[in-house]
Amino acid sequence: MFKKEPHIKALSNLKNSDRKKLLQTIKTQTNLETYNFNNSNIIKQTNFQTTNPPSIGTIFTNDSNIPIWFKSKHNDLLYPTVFTCWNNHDILPTLLSHDFVIQEKLFNGANLMISGTIPPFDSRLIPGTLCGIASVQDPKRIVWAIGVVKMNMPSFDKVVGETGVAVEVIHHFEDELFKIFKCNDLKPDEFVKEQLNTEHPQDNDVADEDTTRKKEENRESNEPDFEVLDHFKTEDVDYFITRSLYYTITQDTKVELPISASNFISQHINKNLPDISHNEVNIKKTSWKKTAKFLKHFEKEGFLKLKGKGDDLTVVGMNKTKDELKNFVPYKIGKSTTPSFSLSSPNTNDKSDTKGMMYSETFYKPINHAKDLLKAVPTIPTKPLYTQQEIRDIVTSYINSKNLIDMKNKKMILLDDLLFNMVHKRQSEANAAPRTMMRGTILEPILANNFTEHYQIYRKRNGKGELMEDVEPLFKSPQRGHLPQIDILTEMKIGRKVITKVSNFEIFGISSDFLAADLRKLCSGSTTIGETMTSPKTPEVQVQGPHGQIIIDHLNKKFGVPTKWINYVNKLKNKKKRK
Questions:
Q1: Which site among 84, 265, 272, 467 is 20 to 30 Å from 283 CA-CA?
Q2: CA-CA distance, 476 to 173, in Å (whole number)?
């Protein structure tokens, strides 16, 4: 329903009587008499209109302007948002799928096919029923999409060989509904914790003997307490993280020193964990809590050598001669099951050593003849995206396996039919092209003709400019295309009024409201929030005066956007000096 950005009107508070009526309707529809609006006394509503597919309806939000329910004008059925499902796990029956299907298919606008589901199925998953879609790799079963069931799912014991749409997806995490209400910084864990605190409040004034007795029995039993958020104890998490450090020091040949603390954790410690959920095993869940404390502890133990002060640390050395490492037995590293998209052996193409600065990674998705190349190198694991170094290794493996090195001149490669078609895309070029090529130049045309470029941005600051403990990816999965730039334009309007416009910043997770408020103070001038003339759906902040350099410095320092990601154009004519 929200594949394209909806047109919405201003929010208005719901009357108390309408609020109660809405609550009762939800209880009747979900058969949950215990449902409430999570202590939100104010419910707001607005009308929306979408074009693809065309739809008109109403969106309901809480007092924080987070969308919680929505409905179509011509249908009485109320749809909960993923935020509501995070707060109420039992509100919808859940259908399980794979991480790859959710991230690569559903998040790109596709419906869930039956071949992408995982039995056994809930008996409530019959045609016409609303359901939530969660990842089978996620032990918390966090809902990432909402849809309407189209098939009688309980009748299927297996899905291999079956065809058809199992669920028509209505709404998913980070769709246009998510973006238009500026919910970029919301995470499932915040809602899960809030739910646990709401469902199990502590009341010291009422002491029920039967409740107390049941709690004591729960403590004595071997089953985990229902209020425990983590599957593992802190000691277990410490053990896994320590083992990952040992693995990184002894086995990881891709560590390039010096390396910043955040990159050391995200690209090596997290990548070298065993096959275990990264939601439950990460630095935040350890006894050290913070990256700096973790690294300083192992510096005292003699494993690492650090430089820097406070939280701004750089790993400059690793001691491989420690006694603990001599008997270390390597293990098979696993893949992250965090909601965020991850790839093994990432190749960071644009890093910044400055504290809190964003950096990017470039990935490539195989198309055309690239798929044939991957099939010809079976030793390389198949995955949706590859780094440039991984593609280089694949091409090298293929050349060696086919003996395509020119023995007369080892700098030249003999192009077989597959490589020839990958290098020469146009038929006019292919007719006159030689069957040999310089070894150092073969990768560029292969990438350009047979792969689509994707990018991922990593940030240390949130949309408000606040410094976070750990680096996190800006997008759920890498975005197609080249890395965008923030546009800044200084020009003179009619009436000799100078203004500076800033646009294309929201893709970097920067809120237009916060940016406008900051520029109002920094530039001591009025600001307005609008849309660009060339692209009406791109937000634009305008401030009076020639403040291009001030804005660039502000984007650097507060939001961590490197200067090379900013395109600044000054259209003011330089005043000619009088002779």
A1: 84
A2: 9
d(CA 397, CA 553): 46
pTM: 0.45
Structure confidence at residue 406 (pLDDT):
84
Tokens of 410: 């080892």
Cβ contact 1:171 at 8 Å: yes
C-alpha span between 24 and 26 (Å, rounded): 5
Which pairing describes strands 44-51 and 12-13: parallel, antiparallel, or unpaired? antiparallel
Q: Give me the mean pLDDT over the 203-211 stretch.
A: 40
If one compares 80 and 377, the residue with the highest pLDDT of the two is 80
Predicted pLDDT at 152:
92
Residue 528's SS3 state is: strand
- Yes or no: say if 106 and 145 are a contact pair by the CB < 8 Å rule: yes
| Residue type at position 464 | K
The residues pairing with 526 across neighbouring beta strands, listed in sequence order, are none
Helices (H), strands (E): how many in the chain? 17, 26
Instruction: Report the distance separating Cα 202 and Cα 199, nearest Å.
Output: 10
Instruction: Count other Cβ atoms within 10 Å, centred on residue 457.
Output: 21
Q: Give the up-direction half-sphere exposure of residue 210: CA atoms within 13 A in the CB hemisphere.
A: 0
Question: What CA–CA distance (Å, rounded) separates 560 from 508?
Answer: 10
DSSP per-residue letters across 482-508: SPP-EEEEEEEETTTEEEEEEES-GGG
CB atoms within 10 A of CB 37: 19
Chain centre distance of CA 244: 23
DSSP 348: E
Question: Tokens for 111?
Answer: 């419906």
Q: CA geometry: angle at 533 spanning 531 and 539, to 5°?
A: 20
- Size of the chain in residues: 579
Amino acid occupying residue 394? I
Q: Measure the CA–CA gap between 227 and 200, rounded to whole angstroms.
A: 8
Taking the CB of residue 341, how many other CB atoms lie within 10 A of it? 20
**Which pair of structure tokens corresponds to residue 506?**
């929201």
Q: Among candidates 314, 398, 303, 405, which has minimal Cα distance to 355? A: 314
Give the contacts of 4 (CB within 8 A, at least 6 positions apart). 50, 51, 52, 176
Q: What is the largest CA-CA distance in the chain?
A: 97
Closest CA to 477 of 112, 145, 137, 104: 104
Domains and their CATH numbers in the chain? 7-192 (3.10.400.20), 234-337 (1.10.10), 364-453 (1.10.245.10), 484-570 (3.30.780.10)
Distance in Å from the first CA to the final CA of the chain? 66
Rounded-to-integer distance, Cα 55 and Cα 74, Å: 9
Tell me the C-alpha distance between 44 and 66, whole Å. Answer: 9
Check if the beta carbon of residue 241 is closer than 8 Å to that of residue 281: yes
Residue with structure tokens 């005043």? 575
pLDDT tens across 259-282, in order?
888 778 888 888 888 877 766 788
